[in-house]
Amino acid sequence: MSNDLHNYPTPSVTVDCVVFGYDGTTLSVLLIQRKEAPFESMWTIPGGFLWMEETFETTANRILATKAGLQGIFLEQLYTFGAIERDPRKRVLSVAYFALVNPSNYQVVAGDAAHEAKWFPLSELPALGFDHQEVIQVAQQRLKAKVIYQPIGFELLDEQFTLTELQHLYETILEQSIDKRNFRKKILETGVLKNTGLKRTGVKNRAPELYEFNKEAYQGKVNFSLF
Amino acid sequence: MSNDLHNYPTPSVTVDCVVFGYDGTTLSVLLIQRKEAPFESMWTIPGGFLWMEETFETTANRILATKAGLQGIFLEQLYTFGAIERDPRKRVLSVAYFALVNPSNYQVVAGDAAHEAKWFPLSELPALGFDHQEVIQVAQQRLKAKVIYQPIGFELLDEQFTLTELQHLYETILEQSIDKRNFRKKILETGVLKNTGLKRTGVKNRAPELYEFNKEAYQGKVNFSLF
DNA sequence: GCAAAAGTGTTGTGTATACACCCATGT
DNA sequence: ACATGGGTGTATACACAACACTTTTGC
């Protein structure tokens, strides 16, 4: 860090969030349709300017609350994007975060600055403003890499879930199919799942057992790793 | 990203670099002794303000060239630190990078803004200004994690090196000892090493064979992984 | 009783680990 | 000849991958 603090011009700084959601079938990203230039009426990930009295996390939470109606969700810093021309108006840095939410717990609503807030499957993204396509791509890579050595996937599911649902989530994130017996063996022997003893009823087949994520059992676990 | 571009106050942004060096024995970090307040005469990692026409990488290279005499080295973005009070003067964000260099290829020299530029072994760091102790800690974790799935360690060595030297580097980074035969087996079967056919002479024991990193062989290799 | 998904073990294959001696060189 | 680090192979344990049938439930 430089010693002097002469008044160099300073860039604007935004916090932008890649919010992943999973509806039981598809992995989606939350996008917002812009009302104003630049990129008017195009889609972008939700973001906004950092205020001087805010940490990045505070900004991210404010943005997600006001622009999409999301509160208190899992957030992690992804990368900071700083290409000189990434905003056509002036120099704007973007500290990108990624987030995982269970869409059924929230009703996304567009804030003032947006026409609409909507979930888009990763495979059907519209044209995106700024460098947000790249941001999403980096986020997806990170999610893929991360899910195998940290039990973060649970953020995307209901509190109680079946092993088949969990497996399908992993298959969706990793974009590959997984052997059922091997998956169950591995995930159970990590010890992070708690069998609730309950079963999901009302399905038109054998009632599957419901599990929960056991946060305490994970704390301090060094060797969580699937595959 | 927000639609409106009202003139919010903007934070200052610095790029700070954790530069690792390895002298054949010890893993060290390059530090600079400050001339001015705050943290006058304390040590910090080299850094400086981002200029409006610079990318982060450009800034990092400028800083390293002017403050420490280093040029064209391996750089990777680490994390962005934004705690509100991390600089006592005003709001300053730090986009941190980490770098790997072979100290014997460079003569570090203090620039104008520093009393001195000096290598400190990781185990003997002085009291550090700002939040730089945390930054170094994060960088060390990253280096540890990264070295096992990407062949970045070579940046720290001479162009030609012996397997024993390479092993010792890995042991130093990972802070654990490694079985010699297993290490050789694994690193050789990755295929990223090229035996030069030369031997290091003038040592007071059997002349060891010299290897080089084979960049072409690594390109496109998906499965580089040690341990 | 049929359709549909849940649940369950074993075996082979490959990878990781542990381990000890001879070789080449300089002094 | 001796001291120093260089260089090499095998046996065992463990982890991973492949694989098919029975059970439960709703209709």
Would you mind describing this structure in some detail?
Two copies of one chain form a homodimer. Chain A has helices at residues 56-68, 132-147, 163-174, 180-189, 215-218; strands at 12-22, 27-34, 43-44, 47-49, 74-81, 92-101, 114-121, 160-161, 193-199, 209-213. By secondary structure, chain A is α+β, with helices and mostly antiparallel strands. In chain A, strands 1, 2, 3, 4, 5, 6 and 7 form a seven-stranded mixed sheet that branches. In chain A, strands 8-10-9 form a three-stranded antiparallel sheet. In chain A, strand 1 (12-22) and strand 2 (27-34) form a beta hairpin. Chain A starts with 11 loop residues before the first strand and ends in a 9-residue tail after the last helix. The interface between A and B is large, with 47 and 47 residues. The structure holds a DNA duplex (27 and 27 nucleotides).
Mean pLDDT rating of chain A: 94
Percentage of β-strand residues of chain A: 25-35%
Q: Count the DSSP helices of chain A.
A: 5
Which chain pair shows the most residues in contact? A-B, 47 and 47 residues
Classify the helix fraction of chain A into a percent range.
10-25%
Distance between the termini of chain A: 41 Å
Multimeric state? homodimer
Order of helices and strands of chain A: EEEEHEEEHEHHEEH
Number of beta-strand segments of chain A: 10
Uncertain residue segments of chain A: none
The class by helix and strand makeup of chain A works out as alpha+beta
The value of Rg of chain A in angstroms is: 20 Å
Shape of chain A: elongated
Mind summarizing the main beta sheet of chain A? 7 strands, mixed
